[in-house]
Design a protein that fits this description.
By secondary structure, the protein is of the alpha+beta class. The chain contains 18 helices and 59 strands. The strands form 17 sheets. An eight-stranded parallel β-sheet has the order 16-15-14-7-2-1-18-17. Helix 7 packs parallel to helix 8, helix 11 packs antiparallel against helix 12 and helix 14 packs parallel to helix 16. It is globular.
Length: 1012
C-alpha cells in the first residue's frame, strides 16, 4: 500500500483548491509572496457562496392549508387510505405548498432569505406497520413528483416562482438513504439485522464480496435477489412498479439485511424501522440519485438541498454524488447552489468529517444546538461556549469552514427550543422564558453560521418533546395535545391560527435579520472570542469586516442580572456605536484597546467601530508550534501556529506529504490551527507543514517548516463488553479508526495460563468480526481477547478485554403479555416493544425485568429479538402455551429468564408499585471515552453504575480532560431518564473534568446525581 491510499482525492482537492484560491486572491487583492503558485502563500479565508442565508424551516403539512381540495391527496375519504385526519398528530393535517405561497409575506417579514421545505415528494400515504401517515415526507415512493396532499408539481412551481420574485431561495429536504417500506422478505416484513460476518453478500455467481471494498468502483458486482442477501427480498402483487424512477423497483439496489440498531455496520446497511435501505455503494444508486436531484434543479430551479440521514450513507457515495450535483448546478448558472447534510452528532471532530473527507459544503450544526441550549436555556458557563467555538477549526479546509454551517435551536426530530426552555426552567415565568428565547436567537443570528428558524418558533411554540410533539400546525388545531401547549410570549393557543406579526419573538427575529442584512460582517466576518466568564455571565466576541476593516463587538449575558465586563478590542482610543440592545449608546477604548461594557440580564448588545481598524502594515511573525495526531481523531493531524501579534490576522496552512504542496485552509481567529485529514496516508508517513500569516491587506510571511507524522490507527474491541458472559460461539467485533483501504484485523485469544493465539482475521470494514469457539470451556473462566490491526505494514494492538465463558446469552429477550400497554407499549402482546426488553445480568447469565402489575390474572411469554419467530412459553417450550401469573394484590414483579433452559422465574414483592431499577447507566457524550461504541447509549455496560445497596448507585471512572454532558438512564433505555436537579427527561448535566478519576453517585429517591 502506497503512502497515499486515495491519491486521486488529494490531487483533485489540491488542483481545485489552487485554481479557486488564485481567483480569490486576485479578487481580494491578497499579496502573493515570492513563492511560485505551487508554493505556500497567503489565501483569503473561505466562505461558501450560498451559505449566507437566513432559513425558515417549514413542514408544509403543518403550516397553512391553502387548498382544501387536496386534503385527501386524491385518495378515498378514509384516514387509513388517504392518511388525512386532522384529529390525529400522526396523520396529514391539510397544510400544503399553496398555504406557504399565500403566506410568503409573513415569512419574508422575518427577514427570511431561504425557505427550507421538509421532504415534499410523493409518499406512501399510510404505512400500516407504523400506524401513521407520511405527512412528514420521509416515506417516499416517487422521487419525481410532489405529493398530491401538498398540491403536486404545479403547486411547487407556483411557490418557487413567487419566492424568487421576492428574492427568496427555495431549498429541498432530500433523501438518498432509503425509500418507503415496500420490500418485504420471505420470512417476514420487518426482521432483525444480520451482520455481514454472519452472512456475507454474495455476487450473482455465489462468491462472497466485500461491499465496502468495492463501493463506488467499476468492480461493483452484479447481484441476485435469490442468493446475494441474508434475507430474500420480495414484492407483493401490484408492488412491482410502486416506486419511481423505475430503477428503484429493482430489489437488488437495496441492502436487504434487516432493521438497523444504529450501531456498527448496521448503521450503514440496516433498514430504518423497515424503510427500504438503498445500497448507496452501488454505482447505479449514485447515478440514479444524481439524475433525480439534478432533474429538480433543471426543471424547477431549486436553489439548494438539505440532505437527510447523511451519516448512514457510505463516504464514497458523497465523494461522487456531491461534486456531480454541484457541477450540474453551476452549468445551470447556479454558482451559489448550496447543500448541507444532517449528521446527528454532538462532536465537531465527527461532524466535520463530512465537510473535509467527504467534501460536502456544510452540515447542520448539531454541536451548536447543544452549546446554545446550555448557554441560553440552562445558564451554562460562558467559558464552555467559548471552548465550543474554538472547536470550529475542525471544519477549516480548502473550500469550507464553520462559517458555512447552518445553525439551529430545535427541530422536528429533537423538539422545539421552547419546550427545552420549559424543561430546563420549570419554575420560570413567561417573561424569563421569552427573554431566554430571545437570547438564544441573538446568539444564533450574531455568531458564525447561517441561522435556521423552525416554523412556529417565532410564535413561541413549545410542545412536549420531539417528533410529533414538535410538529404543531400554525393554523387552528383539533388535536388536544397541541391545543394544550403553553406558548411563550403570548396568551394565544394552538387552537387558533398563529400568524401574529406583533408577537415579541417574531419582532426580535425580524430585527436580528435586518441587523445582519445591513451589516454583512455579522454573517461572515471573522469571529474572535473577547471575553468568557467562568460560569454564567457574559460571552463577548468580535466580528471583523475583512474588506472595510470595521470591527463589530457582540456581547451576550445569560445571567439574571446585568453584568459589566472589560474586553480588549483591535483598536486603541477608538469609538464604538451601539447598533443593537439596551446599553450605552457609545463606547471608547483606552490606549490598550480595552473597553468596559454592560449587558442586560438575558440580553445582547452589538457595537460597531466608528472608523476602520488600520492593518498592521507589516507581516505578522508566525511559527508553527506543533503538528501532532489529534486526540479525538487519529485520522487527522492538528497543526498549530503562533503569531507575535494580537491584531487581526489570517493564517494559511500548507502540507507536503511528498508529492507537492496542498493548501489545507485559512484560519482567521485564534487559536490558529487546522486539522489535516491524513486518513488517506499510511501510518508513519512524514508530512511537512508551513504556515503563511497575513494581515489581510497585503503583508504576509511564512513560517519555518515543521514535520508531523501520520499517527497509528486506533483499534477498539467493542464486543464482548468487559465481563460479559460469552456462550459457546462469541462474536469478537472490532472497530478501527481510520479504517484505511487494505486494513486487516487479527483477533487473538488468551486462556488462563496460556499464550496469545490467533483465532481469525477479517479485512471487511466497517466492523471487523471473528467468531470464536469456546465449546467445552468451564463456565466462569476468564477469556482475554485483543485485536491487532495492520495498515501498510504498521501493526497496532488494542487493549485486552476479558469475558467469561459460560451459558449462551442468545438474542435479546422481551416480555410480551397482557400487561404491555400498562408498561408503556403501544399495545399488548408486543414483542418489539422497548419497554418490555429484559436486561442481562452478566454475572449470572440471566435476563431480568421488573414490572408493576395490578391484581388479577396476567399472561405472558418470552420472545427473542423482537419477533415471534423465536418464543418460549410454559415450561420453556418453544411456541408453548402462555405462562400465567395471578396476583391477589398489586405488586412489583421481577421476571427472570434463563436463556439456556428458557424457563422464567417470578418474584412478586408487596404492592407499593415502586420497583427498584435493574440497571442505571451514565449516558452522555463522554461514553466513547470510557469504552462505549457510541455516545448517548443508554444500554452501554461500560458506563453502568454499581448498586451500592443503600438506594444509591455509583460509578468511578477516569474521564479525559474536557467538558461533557450526561444523564442517567434507567434499565438500559431512554424511557426513564433523569437530568439536572433529578428532573425526569430533564436537561443534560454538565461535567468539567481535569482528567482525573470522577465518581458519579445516583440517588434513587431524589433521582439526583452528584459528581466528585
Amino acid at each position: 500500500m502506497s503512502n497515499d491510499a486515495h491519491p486521486a482525492r488529494r490531487t483533485i482537492i489540491a488542483i481545485v483548491a489552487v485554481l479557486s484560491l488564485l481567483a480569490i486572491g486576485a479578487a481580494t487583492g491578497i499579496a502573493i509572496s515570492a513563492y511560485r503558485d505551487s508554493q505556500p502563500h497567503a489565501v483569503a479565508p473561505t466562505r461558501q457562496p450560498g451559505a449566507d442565508e437566513v432559513f425558515y424551516f417549514v413542514m408544509a403539512d403543518r403550516f397553512a392549508n391553502g387548498d382544501t381540495a387536496n386534503d385527501l391527496g386524491g385518495y378515498a375519504d378514509d384516514p387509513s387510505v388517504s392518511g388525512f385526519d386532522p384529529t390525529n398528530a400522526g396523520y396529514y393535517q391539510g397544510g400544503d405548498l399553496a398555504g406557504i405561497t399565500a403566506n410568503l409575506d409573513y415569512i419574508a417579514g422575518l427577514g427570511t432569505t431561504a425557505i427550507w421545505l421538509t421532504p415534499s415528494f410523493t409518499n406512501i400515504p399510510v404505512q400500516e406497520a407504523d400506524g401513521s401517515a407520511g405527512y412528514h415526507g420521509y416515506w417516499i415512493t416517487d422521487f419525481t413528483s410532489i405529493d398530491p396532499h401538498l398540491g403536486g408539481n404545479e403547486a411547487l412551481e407556483a411557490l418557487v416562482d413567487a419566492a424568487h420574485e421576492r428574492g427568496m431561495a427555495v431549498y429541498f429536504d432530500i433523501l438518498v438513504n432509503h425509500t418507503a417500506d415496500i420490500i418485504g422478505y420471505q420470512d417476514a416484513d420487518r426482521v432483525p439485522y444480520v451482520t455481514t460476518d454472519e452472512s456475507p453478500y454474495m455476487d450473482a455467481q455465489g462468491e462472497p464480496i466485500d461491499i465496502v471494498g468495492v463501493a463506488g468502483t467499476d468492480a461493483f458486482p452484479t447481484l441476485d435477489a435469490d442468493g446475494s442477501f441474508p434475507y430474500t427480498p420480495v414484492l407483493q402483487a401490484g408492488e412491482e412498479d410502486a416506486k419511481s424512477p423505475d430503477w428503484l423497483n429493482d430489489v437488488t439496489v437495496y441492502h436487504n439485511r434487516g432493521n438497523t440498531t444504529f450501531t456498527g455496520e448496521d448503521s450503514l446497511f440496516g433498514d430504518f424501522f423497515g424503510l427500504d435501505d438503498l445500497m448507496t455503494e452501488d454505482p447505479r444508486v449514485v447515478e440514479g440519485m444524481v439524475d433525480i436531484y439534478t432533474g429538480w434543479i433543471r426543471d424547477f430551479d431549486i436553489d439548494g438541498f438539505r440532505i437527510d440521514t447523511m451519516r448512514h450513507v457510505d463516504d464514497e457515495f458523497w465523494q461522487q454524488w456531491s461534486p456531480a450535483v454541484l457541477e450540474f448546478a453551476a452549468a445551470q448558472g447556479k454558482d451559489d447552489f448550496f447543500m448541507f447534510g444532517e449528521v446527528y452528532d454532538g462532536e465537531p471532530s465527527f461532524t466535520s468529517h463530512y465537510t473535509t473527507t467527504n467534501g460536502i459544503q456544510a452540515v447542520l450544526d448539531f454541536p451548536f444546538q447543544g452549546a446554545a441550549r446550555d448557554f441560553a436555556s440552562d445558564s451554562g458557563s460562558a467559558a464552555d461556549l467559548a471552548e465550543f467555538f474554538a472547536s470550529d477549526d475542525w471544519y477549516t479546509d480548502a473550500d469550507s469552514s464553520a462559517y458555512d454551517l447552518p445553525t439551529f435551536l430545535g427541530n422536528h426530530d429533537m423538539g422545539r427550543f421552547g419546550w427545552m426552555l420549559q424543561e430546563d426552567n420549570p419554575t420560570a415565568d413567561d417573561a424569563e422564558l421569552l427573554a431566554r428565547d430571545q437570547l438564544a436567537h441573538a446568539l444564533m443570528f450574531l455568531s458564525r453560521g447561517a441561522p435556521v428558524v423552525y416554523y412556529g418558533d417565532e410564535q413561541g411554540f413549545t410542545g412536549a418533546g420531539g417528533d410529533q410533539d414538535a410538529r404543531q400546525t400554525m393554523f387552528a388545531t383539533d388535536i388536544a395535545k397541541y391545543a394544550d401547549d403553553d406558548l411563550i410570549g403570548t396568551g394565544a393557543t394552538a387552537a387558533e391560527d398563529n400568524f401574529d406579526t406583533s408577537h415579541a419573538l417574531y419582532g426580535s427575529i425580524a430585527e436580528l435579520s435586518a441587523l445582519i442584512a445591513d451589516h454583512p460582517a455579522l454573517r461572515d466576518g471573522a469571529q474572535v472570542t473577547r471575553h468568557a466568564e467562568d460560569g454564567e455571565g457574559v460571552f463577548a466576541f468580535s466580528r471583523m469586516d475583512r474588506d472595510d476593516r470595521v470591527e463589530y463587538v457582540v456581547a451576550l449575558n445569560n445571567a439574571d442580572e446585568p453584568r459589566t465586563v472589560d474586553v480588549s478590542l483591535y483598536a486603541a482610543d477608538a469609538g464604538y456605536s451601539l447598533l443593537y440592545g439596551d446599553a450605552d449608546s457609545a463606547l471608547t477604548t483606552d490606549a490598550d484597546g480595552a473597553v468596559s461594557l454592560t449587558v442586560p440580564a438575558f440580553g445582547a448588545v452589538v457595537y460597531a467601530s466608528d472608523a476602520p481598524t488600520a492593518p498592521l502594515g507589516s507581516a505578522p511573525g508566525v511559527a508553527l508550534a506543533s503538528a501532532q495526531g489529534a486526540a479525538q481523531d487519529p485520522g487527522r493531524i492538528e497543526v498549530v501556529a503562533d503569531l507575535d501579534t494580537t491584531a487581526y490576522a489570517e493564517v494559511s496552512f500548507w502540507a507536503d506529504a511528498g508529492d507537492g504542496w496542498d493548501y489545507l485552509g485559512t484560519d482567521d481567529a485564534p487559536p490558529y490551527r487546522v486539522f489535516d485529514d491524513v486518513s488517506d496516508l499510511a501510518p508513519g508517513t512524514q508530512v511537512e507543514y508551513v504556515a503563511v500569516a497575513s494581515d489581510g491587506a497585503g503583508s504576509d510571511a511564512a513560517s519555518d517548516p515543521l514535520v508531523g507524522t501520520v499517527p497509528d490507527p486506533v483499534v477498539t474491541v467493542v464486543s464482548p463488553e468487559p465481563g460479559q458472559t460469552l456462550g459457546d460461539a462469541p462474536a469478537i467485533t472490532v472497530t478501527v479508526s481510520p479504517a484505511r483501504p487494505g486494513t486487516t484485523v487479527t483477533i487473538e485469544r488468551r486462556l488462563p495460563g496460556g499464550d496469545w493465539e490467533a483465532i481469525g482475521t477479517d479485512a471487511t470494514a466497517p466492523v471487523y468480526t471473528v467468531v470464536d469457539d469456546l465449546t467445552g470451556m468451564a463456565a466462569g473462566g476468564d477469556v482475554l481477547y485483543r485485536a491487532v490491526v495492520t495498515q501498510s505494514g504498521t501493526a497496532v494492538e488494542s487493549i485486552a478485554v476479558a469475558g467469561r465463558a459460560g451459558a449462551v446469552t442468545g438474542g435479546i429477550p422481551s416480555l410480551p403479555g397482557t400487561f404491555n400497554e400498562e408498561m408503556g407499549c403501544a399495545e399488548d402482546w408486543m414483542p418489539a416493544c422497548e419497554a418490555a426488553l429484559l436486561t442481562l445480568d452478566d454475572d449470572a447469565g440471566l435476563w431480568t425485568i421488573t414490572v408493576d402489575l395490578e391484581a388479577g390474572l396476567h399472561q405472558y411469554k418470552i420472545a427473542v429479538n423482537g419477533t415471534w419467530d423465536e418464543n418460549y412459553g410454559d415450561a420453556g417450550t418453544p411456541d408453548g402455551a402462555n405462562m400465567v401469573l395471578t396476583l391477589d394484590a398489586p405488586a412489583s414483579v421481577t421476571f427472570t429468564y434463563d436463556p439456556v433452559t428458557h424457563l422464567v422465574a417470578t418474584d412478586a414483592s408487596g404492592g407499593s408499585g415502586e420497583a427498584r431499577p435493574a440497571s442505571v447507566t451514565v449516558a452522555g457524550d463522554l461514553q466513547t471515552q470510557l469504552g462505549c461504541t457510541e455516545d448517548w447509549d443508554a444500554a452501554c455496560t461500560a458506563t453502568a453504575m454499581t448498586d451500592a445497596g443503600d438506594g444509591t448507585w455509583v460509578l468511578t471512572a477516569s474521564v479525559p480532560q474536557g467538558s461533557y454532558q450526561f444523564k442517567v438512564a434507567i434499565n438500559g433505555t431512554w424511557d426513564e431518564n433523569y437530568g439536572a436537579s433529578g428532573a425526569l427527561d430533564g436537561a443534560n448535566i454538565a461535567l468539567s473534568s481535569d482528567g482525573n478519576a470522577v465518581t458519579f453517585v445516583y440517588d434513587e429517591s431524589t433521582h439526583e446525581v452528584t459528581v466528585d
